[in-house]
Amino acid sequence: MLLFAPLIVLVLALALDCLFGEPRRFHPVVGFGQLVNAAEKQFNTTPNNSRLSLLAGLFSVFLLTAPFLGLAIWTSATLDGWPLVLIQSIVLWLAMSLRGLAEHGKAVAEPLQAGDLETAREQVSRIVSRKASALDEKGVAAAATESMLENGADAVFASLFWFLVAGIPGVVLHRMVNTLDAMWGYRNPRFLYFGRVAARLDDLMGWVPARLTALTYMLLGHRKLAWWCWRNQAPQWDSPNAGPVMAAGAGALNVRLGGPSPYPSGVKQRPVLGGAHDASSASVDAAIALVRRGVWLWLVAVLVTTVFIFLALHSS
């Protein structure tokens, strides 16, 4: 039971995600986000003072994460057997969002395919921070495709990785740090110093999962192109983790991503990633399928590893 427990948890969590998706009410990540907003309003009072703002950010990260991490550690140490498996499955289900990712992507792809650009713009504005009203059809498709690839790493594979490495505490800490980075990790006067600790922690916790995600995309797509994009294009990206994921994913799909993108603050010049084909509704669907196939690959890898360890233990 103990040896096969991680595999059982993965299967149960993915089954819960497939059946129920993201909870519509009382989602713990949403509740944590409200606490994050409250802490920022309370402690981010000196954004122009780099030292004080950095210390305030560090204190806020500790204040927000320590109680929940402590509870996760206590739960893991206290429970065992099937009760622990059940709790682990629920926590992993709540932390990842495979079905939710696909739903958000299809909400963009379907109106794009039907020629309804306005609806596609409205839906893509829910998942990216770009100025959706300034995006044409290719821009909307590229934004959605990028979101599927990047959030596949953050919301799916990183959660699976941290569960396999550190159980409930790993999943909980990663989800909290990733949420903090999403809300505070901006390079603007308000968050430049206050959000730096959260951003660096997210980079640290995402480093290995991002590269495993990039490897997953590469193995399941156009391998040579994905490898070339990963090695040559990823270093040009401003994020150390999004770069490999986006470049390898774009290459795996042989789709052209990146490039100039309109934001509320102006047009941001970004490196071009991927292959020769323009983004479209088909590339959004292909990105969703790539993430799904990646999850199956991870399940197979965990199954093979578990069986190998089981046979090795019982043959000695």
From TrEMBL:
It comes from the Bacteria. Pfam families: CobD_Cbib. Its main location: membrane. Keywords: Cell membrane, Cobalamin biosynthesis, Membrane, Transmembrane, Transmembrane helix. It is a multi-pass membrane protein. InterPro entries: Cobalamin_biosynth_CobD/CbiB (IPR004485). The chain crosses the membrane at residues 52-74, 155-173, 295-313. Belongs to the CobD/CbiB family. This is Cobalamin biosynthesis protein CobD. It comes from Marinobacter xiaoshiensis. The gene is cbiB.
